[in-house]
């Protein structure tokens, strides 16, 4: 699921921007290479190693397709909830989701015990975002995408923060630079975390010392649960529209229609 709702909130993970934003933002607009040079200095000042900055940003180019896609993302949810949910929660997706619940029952039980989020909610999000990791996680360079959006003056501070967070992911060794591939707003992995949320909510649940949201199912599902847990999700309570848990899911996605679809899908999986 593409996380672009007019890029106001991608499918939901812009909650941790401020912590990732450079102390002194590079000047947006103007010459792209000059902007990258300025941002590189700010990134190094913020603690990113010169080697990582050089490897990630040397030769990076502006991506006009990203800006074109950004401009087209207004009014994403024009359908009614019934129309939208019908396109997202298919019989096959429900069937696959129930299989995933069975296949990952032990893992999901441990995650529920630690984070207090029911398996059906986690699997519903996983299914909606990338068809349980089997669908499209995006094919664009995260670094190039975020550099392009950061250079654009519409939301430069927001995306400079995301670009800095992406460099932190590489510096921590969570993902190799050639694994930093994602969608049109820089979303990464099987549940499409933006880099700032990757840093804030990511959990190493397989115990290998790294948070890998592209390849490690334990890390993916635990990190998704952790985001909801930190946002106030309470296990055993209602999660439908009007509930406190529904509001907690706002950190995942501000769009009411999308959160209603998560709840609807979770109900179908639980039946």
From TrEMBL:
Gene3D superfamilies: Bacterial muramidase. Residues 32-239 form the Transglycosylase SLT domain. The keyword Signal applies. Residues 1-25 form the signal peptide. The keyword Signal applies. Keywords: Signal. GO terms for biological process: peptidoglycan catabolic process. SUPFAM superfamilies: Lysozyme-like. This is Putative lytic murein transglycosylase. It comes from Afipia carboxidovorans (strain ATCC 49405 / DSM 1227 / KCTC 32145 / OM5).
């Amino acid at each position: 699921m593409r996380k672009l709702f007019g890029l106001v909130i991608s499918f939901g993970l812009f909650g941790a921007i401020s912590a990732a934003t450079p102390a002194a933002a590079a000047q947006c607009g103007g010459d792209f290479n000059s902007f990258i040079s300025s941002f590189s200095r700010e990134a190094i000042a913020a603690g990113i190693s010169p080697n990582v900055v050089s490897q990630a940003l040397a030769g990076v180019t502006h991506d006009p397709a990203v800006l074109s896609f950004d401009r087209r993302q207004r009014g994403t949810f024009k359908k009614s909830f019934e129309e939208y949910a019908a396109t997202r929660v298919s019989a096959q997706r429900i069937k696959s989701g129930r299989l995933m619940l069975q296949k990952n029952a032990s893992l999901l039980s441990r995650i529920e015990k630690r984070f207090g989020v029911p398996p059906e909610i986690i699997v519903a999000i996983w299914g909606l975002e990338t068809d349980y990791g089997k669908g499209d996680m995006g094919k664009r360079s995260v670094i190039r995408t975020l550099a392009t959006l950061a250079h654009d003056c519409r939301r430069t501070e927001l995306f400079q923060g995301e670009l800095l967070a992406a460099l932190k992911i590489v510096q921590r060794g969570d993902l190799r630079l050639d694994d930093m591939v994602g969608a049109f707003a820089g979303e990464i992995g099987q549940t499409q975390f933006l880099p700032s949320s990757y840093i804030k909510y990511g959990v190493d649940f397989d115990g290998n010392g790294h948070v890998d949201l592209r390849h490690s199912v334990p890390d993916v599902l635990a990190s998704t649960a952790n985001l909801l847990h930190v946002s106030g999700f309470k296990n055993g309570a209602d999660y439908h529209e009007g509930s406190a848990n529904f509001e907690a899911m706002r950190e995942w996605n501000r769009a009411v229609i999308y959160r209603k679809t998560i709840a609807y899908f979770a109900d179908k999986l639980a039946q």
